Amino acid sequence: MTNRSLRMRRGLPVVLLLSLLTGAGCAQAAGVTPADSQAVRALFLQQTTAETAHDLHALSGMFASTAPGQPDAVSFVARAYRFWGRDEVLEHFRQTFAGTWRVEPDPSALRIIPLNQDTVQVYAPTKVTIGAPGQPEKTATFLINEFMIRSPSGWKVAAVIPVPAQ
Q: Do residues 44 and 67 share a domain?
């Protein structure tokens, strides 16, 4: 047996394992249909519209709910702060809405990445304008990453992770 055939033979299990793992990931993600992707896209755009309008009631209905006694799936994690749980995230927005808060995603750059049949990642470069009450506003671009989960009532936001673009 030559060195080349030995290397190929040794590499075969690795190639098979990688193809199985990749195939399993694709099979899981196959449960996310084009209609699901459209619903997720619409939810994200409705969310950003509700945030810009400071509509806490509308925003509240977009976050995942958890049954009593179950771990709360909602979080908002940024460089400067971390909010764990639906109520904390909504309280953050309530306080933020006292000042300037506008979000302008780039719809042409929005990406929906299925992770499995019930979970997707949303990626959207977004201009965010913020300002505390009475303070000058500042605009910066963030690479918004969100995770949405399928629920009995449709897709819901579970996690928000804004990453500064610069």
A: yes
